[in-house]
Amino acid sequence: MNTLTYLGVDVSKAHLDLADATTTRRITNTPAAIHKLLARLPEGTHLLVEASDGYERLLVDACHHAGRPVSVVNPTRVRRFAQACGQYAKTDRIDARMLHVYGLAFHPSPTAPADPAVRELAELVDARSQIVQARIAILSYLEHAAQNTVVRIYRAQLRSLEVQIRTLEAAINTQLTSAPLLRDKASLLQSVKGVGPVTAATLLAHLPELGHANRQEIAALAGLAPYNSDSGQKSGRRFIKGGRPKVRRALYLAAFTLLRSPSNPLCIFYRRLRANGKPAKLALIAIARKLLAHLNSCIKNLPA
Fold first, then answer.
1. For the whole model, what pTM was predicted?
2. Long-range contacts made by residues 119-123, C-beta under 8 angstroms, separation at least 24?
3. How confident is the model at residue 286 (pLDDT cuts 50, 70, 90)?
4. In 144, 162, 247, 275, which residue has its Cα 20 to 30 A from 107's Cα atom?
């Protein structure tokens, strides 16, 4: 670890701010500038960058192509780390410097290159989710619309959005069945009661650790792991926190679907929790966690 040099990189659409132990500097966020930067970095340089709505992708892809270690880290964790260090000011250069210090403190593992098929699937899944949310918003507006012109416009928008959703779902299905990396996993996931194409696609797109982590780790990644809240003689109620919201939402909806199958073991487990006085939402989260553990085991046992 002592031979590593951590380079913090704060990313924006137009430029990259770089910070190491002694200097800060800025370059443009373009392929040419990034190529020149990577060619000049000394051996053993490990880059740290926050997830920045896709603006970091150009740099991360270039690092992987050049064989440079790069870690894409959670921006919330880095921000809280900065505050714990007493750094409350926030500028691009300060953020780059804090990424450098974060690397020295935690030595994050390099981020593995994303498989192109998984990246395309994630883009399709996210696009569908955005359009579904837009459809929900239009339906809400339509409930209160009274003027005929407004009603017609909203209904036309709904018809258009529904066509787009069906188009994206067809593209997701094509991606799941045509990519060898995804086909067997998607088929196995959908063989489990409650898991449909959208849930399977969401898990494969946004939880690549599925089948490679133990049940505690995978629950934490999905934001379904219960955490204690105890102090002294006080034993507080456990809670879930963090994780990946898109994955947690998909599993929660899958768990809700399972309630329609009274004979399913998870549905029976839900009824037992409710009979013991557990709140409905807590019981659903417990089902979602058990479902995820089962899916993780299934993928882990899938023949290579």
1. 0.85
2. 120/175, 121/172, 121/175, 121/176, 121/179, 121/182, 121/201, 121/204, 121/205, 122/205, 122/206
3. very high
4. 247
Q: Which residues pair with 227 in a beta bridge?
A: 239
Query: What pLDDT, in 10s, does the model give residues 177-205?
Result: 998 889 999 999 999 999 999 999 999 99
Nearest to 119 by CA among 191, 205, 213, 41: 205
Please, what is the Cα angle at 78 between 77 and 84, to 5 degrees? Answer: 90
Beta-carbon contacts of residue 291 (< 8 Å; ≥ 6 apart): 192, 194, 195, 251, 254, 255, 258, 266
Q: What is the distance between the terminal CA atoms of the chain, rounded to a whole angstrom?
A: 33
For residue 304, what pLDDT is reported?
Answer: 61
- Beta carbons of 189 and 195 less than 8 angstroms apart: yes
Helices 280-300 and 245-258: crossing angle in degrees, nearest 10, is 100
pLDDT digits (tens, 9 = 90+) for 46-101: 999 998 888 999 999 999 999 999 999 999 999 999 999 999 999 999 999 999 99
> Distance between alpha carbon 281 and the CA centroid of its chain, in Å?
22
pLDDT digits 0-9 by tens, 229-258:
777 877 777 788 888 999 999 999 999 999
Amino acid type, 274: R
Nearby residues of 211 by Cβ (< 8 Å), 6 or more positions away:
185, 296, 298, 299, 300, 302
Report the distance separating Cα 12 and Cα 177, nearest Å: 36
